[in-house]
Design goal:
By secondary structure, the chain is α/β, with parallel strands linked by helices. It has a single domain (about 1-185), classed as Rossmann fold. Helix content is about 60%, strand content about 15%. It has a 5-stranded parallel sheet with strand order 2-1-3-4-5, with helices on both faces. Helix 7 links the parallel strand 4 and strand 5 (about 155-160). Helix 1 crosses helix 8, helix 2 packs across helix 8 (about 165-185) and helix 3 (about 50-65) packs parallel to helix 8. The protein is globular, with a radius of gyration of 16 Å.
Length: about 190
């Protein structure tokens, strides 16, 4: 077990080292887009399935509450949390549109849409990104592996260079925390 633990931690470190080498400029671009959105009265809409849904909720909470500093609340909504909306849309229209329909209802052009999918293949996330672009939002995705169709659809995609879902999710939350810290630091000045 000890060796397996060491292997897992080393693999996670390796993925993060690759992010250091390839994703810094992209993380800066994402943070700047979000800062610009908040300064113009926009909000961030986040969505994903399973662990990515949990990440969407986690990051929305960091913006609305606080990350490390007491400051004014920042507008962020996880489109994964309203079970009545999710189940009504899933039942009436199909699971594929549960996020796109909410984007249609809630989004304004100054907002940011962040779709999270470890594979980049989640159809409901892809359709929401496409709907957000139709409305005029800047779109961001967090993905893994090749990035899938989501990487082609979003304006900016942070692709984690790993085929392992757990390593991708660990990297997503690390990047999410970095973005929260950058945004909070800039908006607290």
């Amino acid at each position: 077990m000890r060796e397996r633990i060491i292997d897992i931690i080393n693999d996670s470190i390796h993925v993060k080292e690759q992010i250091l080498q390839t994703q810094i400029d992209t993380i800066v671009k994402v943070a700047k887009l979000i800062i610009t959105s908040f300064r113009s009265g926009g909000k961030v809409l986040l969505f994903g399935n399973g662990g990515s849904a949990a990440d969407a909720q986690h990051l929305a909470a960091e913006f609305v509450g606080r990350f490390q500093q007491d400051r004014a609340a920042l507008g962020a909504i996880a489109l994964t949390t309203n079970t009545s909306v999710l189940t009504a849309l899933g039942n009436d229209y199909g699971y594929e549109i549960i996020f796109a329909r909410q984007v249609e209802a809630l989004a304004k052009p100054q907002d940011i849409a962040i779709g999270i999918s470890t594979s980049g293949k989640a159809k409901n996330v892809l359709l929401a990104i496409k709907k957000a672009k139709e409305i005029g939002l800047k779109t961001i995705c967090l993905s893994g592996g090749s990035g899938g169709e989501l990487a082609k659809a979003a304006d900016i995609c942070l692709i984690i260079p790993s085929p392992i879902t757990a390593r991708i999710q660990e990297a997503h939350i690390t990047i999410g925390h970095i973005i929260c810290e950058l945004v909070e630091s800039e908006l607290s000045k």
